[in-house]
């Protein structure tokens, strides 16, 4: 039987000697598929003493996180989702505090969160609530107190939710082990009970509810002068290592049979085979239910016993379904039951960008710009979902009959949220295409947004110059032979390319990621607006600044020289 993440959670709270309990806590254990996609979350907050409404602040922190976190895209990493939500919550607390109470201390709270996803814990923390972990008899404080001491008995919070317009939150992640115990406490607890006592209780008590209650009681007996809250969690079971049911839930389906025109597969009538390779087949088909033309992509029967291949094929469909954008091919969903492994996309009537390049040997730059702007919009749709495309090339881009650009392939997409879940087999192969893949991939580095930018830059360069910025790369690029590559200026292929456009292309395709543009939008802007940094070319030789003027000058000098020589000979 498949193992799953299982956690026991208990909590206890008390207003103590105060009239109002400004502490708040909560947890959420979702069902599938969110349990795998997003994990379980546990949180504790403590409204700051002295603020106008600490109770509302702590309640807002817990409720907003536990609800909003599960509304973020499945593709987002825990870090991305958590930081986005906490930043929005902090802004709301800060603005409401100023509107209602005209004070920086209107709605202020500490906040500590644990998200347990797959076999990893993700910690978010701001303030002086605490998170402890007991593992194999060793008690460790996993969070750090954001306190500043002014005197022996004078301390104040240096960081908290709602106190500043800009949020700085601690984040870290660490692997889980079965049997780990986690404890969350407010300062009304941990200021009145030492770590040794907490460890003793956690070690002796097998019931997590008894642990929380006893920790609270001892702090109360030690004359705590604040609200008291304690939450205890025990990791009872963890998912099997290297198992990803998200992408493999259909892996038990058979591979489709060889398809030919006239055959009907789950209501799709095959019209023609458009493409076939060792890995996939692509067919144009007619959907008899919706009476529309569609594309069907099927896996190759050659890989029917390759678990990693099956996972990778299903990964394509999963990624594509999560992006809805005019410049990205739409993968179509259906409630009909599949009889085999395949997926269906919209049908795009048009040509690939490769065909467009072949048909436009000397394109107008404004036409290139129009296409690249659409490619960039499509790629940014991936990036907003925290995905990297990783295989942008002319063959993976379509232009329909209305001139709309569509990115059509999802086979190499990296999804941050899925990357947090151990997969069946780690794939160390570079999934992109040699001449369009960013050099950092060839050096074993992790890709970033700048890696997709590199590919866009290479495509743009090729559209303008009908060549590649570094020529054809060696079959097995490595650090040494990549270091020997030199950018080929556009004027060597096309004398009509403005120097400022070539400057933008050179920066976008830099072999060093740190020297590329920070954002794709900056590159797009520089393609249409001359950047002064690329126009300051007076230090370049004339042959590079203006080849035509150079050769005219050379011809003129030769003519004058010949006239002078003739004159001297005839004297």
Number of domains: 3
Spatially, the strands of the biggest sheet line up as: 13-14-15-16-18-17
Look at the structure and name the CATH superfamily of the largest domain. Answer: PPM-type phosphatase domain
**Terminal Cα span:** 107 Å
Q: Looking at the structure, what is the overall shape? A: globular
CATH fold annotation of the largest domain: Phosphatase 2c, domain 1
How many beta strands in the DSSP annotation? 23
Biggest sheet features: 6 strands, antiparallel
Radius of gyration: 31 Å
Based on the coordinates given, report the CATH architecture of the largest domain. 4-Layer Sandwich
What do the pLDDT scores average to? 87
Helix content: 25-40%
Summary keywords:
3 domains; six-stranded antiparallel beta sheet; alpha+beta; 571 residues; 23 strands; Transferase(Phosphotransferase), domain 1
Topology summary:
Layout: E1 6-14, E2 23-28, H1 34-37, E3 40-47, H2 54-68, H3 78-101, E4 109-117, E5 120-126, E6 130-135, E7 138-141, E8 147-151, E9 154-157, E10 170-175, E11 181-185, H4 187-190, H5 195-204, H6 208-221, E12 228-237, H7 245-248, E13 264-265, E14 268-276, E15 280-287, E16 292-299, H8 307-321, E17 331-332, E18 343-346, E19 350-352, H9 353-359, H10 365-384, E20 387-388, E21 397-400, E22 405-407, E23 414-415, H11 416-419, H12 439-442, H13 449-465, H14 479-483, H15 499-508, H16 520-528, H17 532-535, H18 542-545, H19 547-569
Antiparallel strand pairs: 1-12, 2-3, 3-4, 4-5, 5-10, 6-7, 6-11, 8-9, 11-12, 13-14, 14-15, 15-16, 16-18, 17-18, 19-21, 20-23, 21-22
Helix pairs in contact: 2-3, 5-6, 10-13, 10-16, 13-15, 15-16
């Amino acid at each position: 039987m498949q193992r799953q993440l299982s956690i026991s959670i208990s909590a206890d709270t008390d207003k103590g000697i105060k009239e109002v309990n400004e502490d708040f806590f909560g947890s959420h254990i979702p069902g599938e598929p969110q349990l795998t996609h997003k994990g379980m979350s546990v949180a504790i907050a403590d409204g700051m003493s002295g603020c106008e409404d600490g109770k509302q602040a702590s309640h807002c922190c817990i409720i907003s996180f536990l609800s909003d976190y599960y509304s973020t895209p499945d593709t987002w990493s825990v870090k991305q989702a958590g930081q986005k939500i906490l930043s929005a919550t902090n802004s709301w607390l800060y603005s409401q505090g100023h509107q209602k109470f005209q004070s920086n201390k209107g709605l202020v709270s500490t906040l500590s969160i644990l998200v347990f996803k797959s076999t990893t814990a993700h910690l978010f923390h701001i303030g002086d609530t605490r998170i402890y972990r007991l593992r194999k008899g060793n008690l460790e404080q996993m969070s750090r107190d954001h306190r500043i001491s002014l005197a022996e008995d004078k301390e104040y919070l240096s960081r908290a939710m709602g106190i500043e317009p800009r949020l700085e939150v601690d984040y870290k992640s660490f692997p889980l082990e079965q049997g780990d115990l986690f404890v969350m406490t407010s300062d009304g607890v941990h200021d009145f009970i030492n770590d040794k006592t907490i460890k003793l209780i956690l070690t002796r008590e097998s019931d997590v509810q008894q642990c929380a209650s006893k920790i609270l009681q001892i702090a109360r007996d030690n004359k705590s002068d604040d609200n008291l809250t304690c939450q205890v969690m025990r990791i009872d079971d963890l998912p099997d290592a290297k198992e990803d049911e998200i992408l493999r839930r259909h892996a038990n389906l058979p591979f489709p049979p060889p398809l030919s025109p006239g055959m009907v597969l789950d209501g799709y009538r095959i019209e023609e085979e458009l493409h076939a390779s060792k890995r996939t087949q692509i067919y144009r088909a007619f959907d008899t239910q919706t009476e529309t033309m569609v594309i069907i992509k099927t896996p190759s029967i050659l890989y029917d016993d390759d678990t990693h291949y099956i996972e990778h094929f299903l990964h394509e469909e999963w990624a594509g379904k999560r992006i809805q954008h005019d410049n990205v091919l739409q993968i179509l969903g259906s409630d009909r039951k599949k009889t085999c492994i395949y997926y269906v996309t919209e049908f795009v009537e048009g040509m690939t960008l490769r065909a467009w390049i072949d048909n436009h040997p000397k394109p107008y730059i404004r036409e290139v710009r129009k296409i690249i702007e659409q490619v960039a919009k499509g790629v940014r749709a991936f990036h907003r979902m925290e995905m990297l495309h990783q295989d942008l090339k002319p063959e993976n881009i379509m232009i329909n009959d209305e001139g709309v650009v569509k990115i059509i392939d999802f086979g190499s997409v990296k999804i941050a949220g899925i990357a947090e879940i151990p997969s069946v087999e780690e794939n160390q192969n570079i999934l992109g295409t040699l001449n369009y893949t960013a050099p950092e991939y060839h050096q074993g580095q992790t890709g970033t947004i700048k890696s997709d930018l590199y590919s866009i830059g290479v495509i743009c360069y090729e559209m303008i110059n009908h060549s590649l910025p570094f020529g054809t790369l060696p079959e097995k690029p490595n650090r040494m032979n990549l270091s020997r590559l030199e950018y080929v200026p556009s004027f060597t292929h096309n004398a009509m390319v403005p120097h400022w456009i070539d400057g933008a292309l050179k920066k976008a395709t830099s072999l060093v990621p740190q020297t590329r543009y920070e954002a794709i939008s900056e590159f797009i802007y520089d393609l249409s607006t001359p950047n002064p940094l690329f126009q300051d070319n007076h230090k370049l030789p004339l042959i590079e600044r203006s080849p035509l003027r150079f050769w005219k000058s050379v011809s003129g000098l030769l003519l004058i020289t010949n006239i002078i020589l003739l004159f001297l000979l005839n004297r």
